[in-house]
Each structure stands twice: as structure tokens, then as C-alpha cells.
Amino acid sequence: MKSVFRKAALAGVLVLAVALCLPGLSRAKDIELTMYYPVSVGGPITGIIDGMIGQFQAENPGIKVKAVYAGNYDDTRVKALAALKAGEPVQLSVLFSIDVFDLMDEDVVVPFDELVASDADRQWMQSFYPALMQNGMVDGKTYGIPFQRSTIVMYYNKDAFREVGLDPETPPATWDEMVEMGKKLTKRDASGKVERWGVSIPSTGYPYWMFGALAMQNGQELMNDKGDATMFDAPACVEALQFWRDLGAKHQVMAEGTIDWGTLRQKFLEGATAMMWHTTGNLTPVRNGASFEFGVAMLPAAKRRGSPTGGGNFYVFKQATPEERQAALTFIKWMTAPERTAAWSMQTGYVATRPDAYETQTLRQYVQEFPPAAVARDQFQFATAEFSTHETARVKKFLDDALQAVLTGQKEPAQALAEAQKGAERVLKAYR
Question: I need a surface site. Which of 26, 165, 346, 410 has the fewest CB within 10 A?
Fold first, then answer.
């Protein structure tokens, strides 16, 4: 009997020795996370994310993260939902902040309130700018954590301002000033052909986002906070759309018709427009590509200043196991820590999503050396939620089609927005 015990003990020692010699056997199997991630703005975003994931994995050896780069925000949502429906292992994603109602209606996301367990975790959830949390919170629960976030800002060519006798440190603060400065900045050759437009507001890609800014500046939001009603045909919206059209058709400071989102940055860098409205996510690419001195300013005001927030939030999917959910939370907390948030903002131009990131030595010094990096942050005091409703894609298309019809001269603002409002009502009445 003693020999049996000795043999068993010896076998146990051998198993322990093998386990110690083979690190892979010394711990539980790695938790593997798949994250769908959108890339809709220029710049080396994928390389930056890959680098952050590599650093995270080095510091958290039990968690592996695979990023799937799936195109723009709409493409990423469609592909992530398709993967979930097919039963593929997808635990988290960065998706549009405005997707929150659709993701809830699909019953695919879990609120972070159910993931956090400690006071420190709850404090982390409250560490982000309130303006950025508006699109991620519904009925008191937090479904999205801000990450790749932005506002719309005005980029302007200071050299062009000097050329026409404008103060390069005083960009337009109102719509009227933007029109007057735009007239001076618009440059034509001897034949009358435009060589440089005064201002450009993109109307493809995300026209509803730009219109949300114009409407807000005129004192009107586009939807309620429950996402079940829109105000497209409000008089202030009609006035805002008329102003957008008039920039080209009446004031002739902007090209008539549509202006392409994807190529506008390059046109600005080439000097084809003196001012452009665009995402702060383009700040670093503009800085790296500009051959002239440029400035960044808050958007001008009509009745008030304003810009909707934009960009993507982290979401955790319900199909993840409890262990995967906690691993995803660990990863998201790591990605949104102050120092990494500061580094992300400097590398990409996206706004740092939490105030304490701007208190880090690196970002504080960066803002001191490059003041435009603070404009989007300072604009938060005038920012509100981006347009978001139930069935956002369907409702948004009614608005986008109306905007395109007006800007191309096919319809008048009141008619087009009334039609868009009727379409939205047909969809949203079921959610009230």
C-alpha cells in the first residue's frame, strides 16, 4: 500500500514539474475577444489600435483581443450584427454612438451598469464628459462608453485670411460673419472661374450631422431624448436649411450642389477652400498635411453656438460569457485610461473623452504647444447629442434625402423637411 502512495506522489511531482516547465499549462486558457472596429476618417487609425492592443496584451497576458476593421460606421454595425446572428464569437465593438437605440431594440448589448461591481468602476463610468455620455445613456443606464469621439469644428486657412486683409486670429463667430468673410475669401480667375471657395460644408457621408449643427445653432434640436420623435419641419430647421442652401445659391461663397465628405480635407489642404466644417478627427491629418498656417475654431452661431457630438462608443454584446464580459470591461477601462486617452487624442486628433486626460503632462504640454487641440474640448459647453432615434438608419435617410434634394435645387426646404418629418412619423409612432 505504501508503494502505491509513493507512486502516486511521484506522479504528482512529475505532473507539477511538467506544468512548471510548460507555461501554457500553468494558467487557465486565454480569454479571446473579437472587436469590430470602424475606420471612417483618414490617418493611421488601424496601426494605432493594433499598437494599443499589443501593449494591452503584454500587460494582460490572459486576454487576447482581435480587431476586425470593417469599414465605416454603418458597415461595421451591419457586419457586427450579422456575425452575432450567425453565432460567431463577437464580444465587443466600437460602433456609432447614435446606434444605441437600434442596438437596444435588437437586444444585443448589455448595459455597463451590469458589468461594473466596485466603487472605482462606477467612478470610471462617471469620468467622461457629460456631453459625450448623452448618446450612450438611455433611461438612466449606460450602454456606450465614449472612445473615438468628435465634434464638428471649423478649419481655416490663416494665410488666405492674411491675403484678403482679414485677421487670421479672428475667425467668424456668427453666420453673418462667415458669409461676409466667405465673400472676401472666395477667389476667382479673370474668367470668373472659382479658384478658392470661401467656405465648404460637406453634404455627403454625414449630411444629417452637419445639419444637426446648423439647426442647433438656430436654436432647434432634431429629436427628443427618447428617440421616438423628430422635429425636422420646425421653423428653425427650415431656416437653417435655407441658410445652408443660400451659402451657394445666393451668397456664392460655397459650391452649389453637394460637397463630398471624403475629399473635402484634401481640397482644403490644396487651398481650394479657405474654411471647412469637418470632424475634429481630421485634426492630426490636417496638421501633418498642411503647407500653410491653419487655425481651428468653434462653429459660428446664429441664435447660439453649437455642434452635435459624433463618433463611436464601446459596446459589450450580450452573447459574451460572464468571463468574456469582464475581460471586455478590463480592456475598455484600459483603453480609456487618462494617459492612453491623451495619447490617442494626440495621435489621431479625436477629442480626449475625459477631463483628467487634459490634466496629464503629455496632453497639457501638447495643447500648450498646439492650441487647436483644445477647441473641440472647449466646444463641449455648447454641444448636445448627435441625431439618434429608434431605427436610426431609416429615419436618418428621410432627412439625408431631404437635405440632398434642397442642396441640389430639386426641392424647397419647407417641402423637403415636411416630407422627411412625415416619413419619420410613420416609423417612430410605433415606439411611442
Answer: 165
Domain chopping of the chain, boundaries: 25-149+310-370, 151-309+385-431
How far, in whole angstroms, is CA 234 from its chain's centroid? 26
Q: Which residue stretches of 60-206 are H helix?
A: 73-85, 100-105, 119-125, 130-133, 158-163, 175-185
What does the pLDDT look like over 184-238, one tens digit per residue? Answer: 999 999 999 999 999 999 999 999 999 999 999 999 999 998 999 999 999 999 9
SS (H, E, C) 293-335: CEEEECCCECCCCCEEEEEEEEEEECCCCHHHHHHHHHHHHHH
- The pLDDT, as a whole number, for residue 29 is 85
pLDDT value of position 16: 39
Measured from the Cβ of residue 78, the count of other Cβ atoms closer than 10 Å reads 14
d(CA 294, CA 195): 18
H or E stretch covering 40: none
Give pLDDT tens digits for 281-323. 899 999 999 999 999 999 999 999 999 999 999 999 999 999 9
Place of cell 507539477: 16
Place of cell 426646404: 413
Cα gap 99→85, rounded to integer Å: 17
For residues 237 and 243, what is the distance between their CA atoms, to the nearest angstrom?
10
Closest CA to 279 of 296, 291, 293: 296
pTM summary value: 0.88
Q: Looking at domain 151-309+385-431, which CATH architecture does it have?
A: 3-Layer(aba) Sandwich (3.40)
Question: CATH second-level architecture of 25-149+310-370?
Answer: 3-Layer(aba) Sandwich (3.40)
Confidence of residue 28 (pLDDT cuts 50, 70, 90): low
Rg, Å, the chain Cα set: 25
CB 217 within 8 A of CB 302: yes
Position 183, amino acid: K
Q: How confident is the model at residue 332 (pLDDT cuts 50, 70, 90)?
A: very high
Distance CA 137, CA 195 (A): 46
Question: What is residue 41's predicted lDDT score, i.e. its pLDDT?
Answer: 53
What does the CA dihedral 376, 377, 383, 386 come to, rounded to 10 degrees? 70
Diameter of the chain measured on Cα atoms: 109
DSSP code of residue 24 = G
